[in-house]
Automatic annotation (TrEMBL):
Assigned GO CC terms: cytoplasm
Known catalytic reactions: 3-phosphoshikimate + phosphoenolpyruvate = 5-O-(1-carboxyvinyl)-3-phosphoshikimate + phosphate
Active site: 311 (proton acceptor)
MF annotations from Gene Ontology: 3-phosphoshikimate 1-carboxyvinyltransferase activity
Entry protein name: 3-phosphoshikimate 1-carboxyvinyltransferase
Biological processes per GO annotation: amino acid biosynthetic process; aromatic amino acid family biosynthetic process; chorismate biosynthetic process
Record carries keyword Glycosyltransferase: no
Length: 426
């Protein structure tokens, strides 16, 4: 597909609903008692994988488009299925569901697409096995299909996480809700806390003190009304587009601003980006953001900041190609085990467009400021690489052809429509 080009960007878009919160709202609705209503559900392939998986496990979920109603069945109400459940490209579905199923005494097999079937699962299998569940990967490996046989008497654990991962933390929390006693999780770095927030929202008890989380089981949660804010990880593509495309100004409505997710805003401000906040909603943790073309300078991105912007690193790498100086991204080895190896894919594809970008063992080194040019590029089947390349095309001279743009529907089905809405000719 030929990517869209522009002279400048102007206009307003409403950011699509948060993917992490959408997954979790279906899961909490399923395992709670009573009715849950989800408003502003994200109708993207990944979240539909979660919805279909829980329907397959016997949860009554009524799909009315952007509004979803669930009659919760409690942890004990899930039903055994004979066929493997296919969760497509969604790592969040697979890892979190393993935590839920760790307490159901029947056997379930979860499989994914070719990308997900290559992603590491040992990180969730290990703590869940310590809690008493039986988990097996294909051919005794850590890779999906994964078969989980839960255990109705799960044991609480104290667990020092070897990787900073909200997916692993969440799987342990779902299992911990089904144990008898106190589970303590010590995070390597603080990662997104949507699961912890939702446990509280659904009437449960959980305590966080810095990197230490304590939770006691068993707990029975109660159905709620959930309103999903916009996804800062989707907004990120437009935040960057607005500052790197000349003569632009974009308004992004309903951007979720949970502090465990706002690393990109901290980085952009440090680089010199003009970002204005309006209509700030404290309860819903969201705001309207206005971005304008800005003069940018290089920064170093490392340490505790990495989990707060992990999914934004490909688009931040593009941003760095348009900043003065050398940007260094380190401590980001987790990027190698995302939907694709995002360190290699980002470097390879931006190099094709003329960027001075080098992959390292744990990140990227980017020299700016470079003019980008025409190229044939590939999404590697990864939604975030595909979207980053469309934004790169907006600042490049000449045509950019993208292979496999379909991957973008994993998280942002209306992405190209929103781009077209903002594109302006002089
Ligand atoms: C997610 C956590 C992150 C992130 C992913 C969504 C979540 O993964 O990259 O897109 O919803 O918990 P890790 O927890 O593996 O870092």
């Amino acid at each position: 597909m030929q990517l869209i080009q522009t002279d400048y960007l102007q206009g307003t878009i409403v950011v699509p609903p948060d993917k992490s919160i959408a997954h979790r709202s279906i899961m909490f609705g399923a395992i709670a008692d009573g009715k849950t209503t989800i408003n502003n559900f994200l109708r993207a392939q990944d979240c539909l994988s979660t919805l279909h998986a829980l329907q397959t496990l016997g949860v009554p979920i009524y799909d009315n488009g952007r509004t979803i109603t669930i009659t919760g069945v409690g942890f004990n109400g899930l039903k055994a299925v004979n066929e493997p459940i296919n969760v497509g490209n969604s790592g969040t579905t697979m890892r979190l569901l393993l935590g839920i199923l760790a307490g159901s005494s029947f056997e379930t097999t979860l499989l994914g697409d070719t990308s997900l079937n290559k992603r590491p699962m040992e990180r969730v299998m290990l703590p869940l096995k310590k809690m008493g569940a039986v988990l097996k990967g294909i051919n005794h490996s850590e890779f999906p299909p994964i078969t989980v046989t839960g255990q109705s008497k799960l044991k609480p654990i104290e667990y020092h996480m070897p990787v900073a991962s909200a997916q692993v933390k969440s799987a342990i929390l779902f299992a911990a809700l089904q144990t008898e006693g106190e589970t303590k999780i010590i995070e390597k770095e603080i990662s997104r806390n949507h699961t912890e927030e939702m446990i509280t929202q659904f009437g449960g008890k959980i305590h966080t003190n810095g990197k230490t989380i304590t939770i006691c089981g068993p707990q029975q949660l109660k159905g709620q009304e959930v309103k999903i804010p916009g996804d800062i990880s989707s907004a990120a593509f437009f935040l960057v587009a607005g500052v790197i495309v000349a003569d632009s100004e974009i308004t992004l409505k309903n951007v979720g601003l949970n502090p465990t997710r706002t690393g990109i805003i901290d980085v952009m401000k440090k680089m010199g980006a003009t970002i204005q906040f309006e209509a700030i909603e404290q309860v819903n943790q969201s705001a309207t953001l206005i971005v304008k073309t800005s003069h940018l300078k290089a920064v170093t991105i490392e340490g505790a900041l990495i989990p707060r912007l992990i999914d934004e690193l490909p688009i931040i790498a593009l941003l760095a190609t348009q900043a003065e100086g050398t940007t260094v991204i380190k401590d980001a080895q987790e990027l190698k085990v995302k939907e694709t190896n995002r360190i290699d894919a980002t470097a390879q594809e931006l190099q094709k467009m003329g960027a001075k970008i080098k992959a390292t063992s744990d990140g990227l080194i980017i020299e700016g400021k470079t003019a980008l040019h025409s190229a044939n590029v590939a999404s590697h089947g990864d939604h975030r690489i595909g979207m980053m390349l469309q934004i790169a095309a907006l600042v490049s001279k000449g045509n950019v052809e993208l292979d496999n743009p379909e991957a973008i529907a994993i998280s942002y089905p209306d992405f190209f429509q929103d781009i077209k809405h903002l594109v302006k000719r002089k």
